[in-house]
Design a protein that fits this description.
elongated, 5 strands, 4 helices, five-stranded mixed β-sheet, STM4215-like
């Protein structure tokens, strides 16, 4: 059995890296492991804004004759532009790109992907605007 969480992560990152609205704001700065600011700047010409993968949970959600999973995951959007406008635009692009998108996973079957919540806040450094987005996916294992 191929990990449903892994397949979903690959599909989400691939989708965001191909989404014109997300790219228009974050460029190629979509990360699983976030490089340092200097590395981001050297690689992409700018360090901000960017998107990163946050924590996730995989819960069994079996039904008769079906092995299923509910996967909750967080995507974080980050900006150093003044105020919240840029991080709000980026989070909206990510939400639109993923909510109800019908991914074709290589082995498992995605039944549903939905956006649950977005929280906007200023990080303790006082400079960084942050959007923490929560999504839920329901996957039937092959």
């Amino acid at each position: 059995m191929t990990s449903p969480s892994y397949e979903l992560q690959v599909a989400v990152v691939t989708r965001l890296k191909a989404d014109p609205a997300t790219i228009a704001i974050a460029g190629a700065r979509i990360y699983d492991t976030v490089p340092s600011e200097a590395q981001r700047t050297a690689a992409t010409g700018a360090a901000w804004p960017y998107v990163s993968l946050g924590p996730s949970d995989e819960n069994s959600d079996d039904a008769e004759c079906i092995t299923g999973f509910e996967i909750s995951f967080q995507i974080d959007c980050w900006s150093r532009a003044p105020g919240f406008p840029e991080v709000r635009r980026l989070a909206d692009a990510v939400r639109i790109a993923l909510h109800d998108y019908e991914f074709a996973l290589p082995v498992n079957a995605l039944a549903q992907l939905e956006h649950r919540q977005t929280r906007f806040f200023r990080d303790p450094d006082g400079l960084t605007s942050h959007a923490a987005m929560t999504f839920a996916a329901f996957i039937e294992a092959a």
